[in-house]
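Protocol step 4 of 6: structure prediction from sequence.
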Amino acid sequence: MRTDLLRARLLEALTLKELPRAGWVREGVQQPESVAAHSWGVAWLVLVLCPKHINREQALCIAIVHDLAELRVGDITPHDGVDPQDKAARELAAFSALNTGLPVDLMPFTQAYGNTPEGRFVKACDKLDMALQAQRYGAIQGLALQEFIDSALAKLEPGLLRELAAGASPPEL
């Protein structure tokens, strides 16, 4: 294994800490979360809310890497007008390149996102994280971010995650 390539990949992954979430920037959120903070939020939700029939370890791995490709392609949102198939192709190419030189193959985790029971659960937690963050920013900064909550609700099945995303009132902070 080439340590120079491994070091480069490890350092590049750390830049997720500096990449702000594009949707929050577009809406004028002050000090918006980074993509890395979002990924942590999704992993936190997976850890805490994982049902017994879901492999928690697999789901956590998927949550950690689910937005890694954004290092290279950026945080593409529906407002950017990028065709979903084009976005997926860009992200797959970026992830494949980022996977090179690592001592572990991360490709199965990115391929599982949305496509396995664990991947679908992580995708649901991704939507829940967005809704909860919208509630938080709305409460703290007085912003109208209902579109993010509505977007999450449109993709969440009835049950606990949907109830949490709907949030009857702003959370106490």
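Step 5 (inspection) to follow. The two ends are 46 Å apart (CA to CA).
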